Amino acid sequence: MAFPDPQSGLVISYGYLWHREHRRGQEEGRKDRPCVIVLKTSVAENGDTIVRVAPITHSEPEDGALAIEIPVPVKRHLDLDTERSWVILDEMNEFVWPGFDVRQLRGKPQGYAYGFLPPALFGQLLRKLGMLWKSGKLKRVPRD
Prior knowledge:
The protein has about 140 residues and is an alpha+beta fold. It has helices spanning about 20-25, 70-75, 120-135, and strands spanning about 10-15, 35-40, 50-55, 65-70, 85-90, 90-95, 115, 140. It has one domain: SH3 type barrels, CATH 2.30.30. The chain is built from 3 helices and 8 strands. The longest helix is centred in the last third of the chain and has 17 residues, at about 120-135.
């Protein structure tokens, strides 16, 4: 099955490596999780596509200003579970698409992506992300 076009707002299955794990020297994420593609950049020199993804987690963030909760109807639309979940915005993984850590969805024939966040929710995510970028609170984990 072919990889999807890495569009902003697309939720993919990905072996996310947390910043704290990266600092400890780990090179692989502990588990595959849904992640939102927040940025796609083409590199003209070699034609690679670079993406940045933000993780989705069930763990409630200590600081709500660093995350966005995903509403239950959106979770249903993406065919995710019904537990509360948040997109964490103060850290991201960055990699050349598709990379080694994009994972096929378990037991689902549609491949590697759950679907797109609704435009209003993705817009809210981008506004909050912009504020975090300006404040210097955004951590990047290179994965290549």
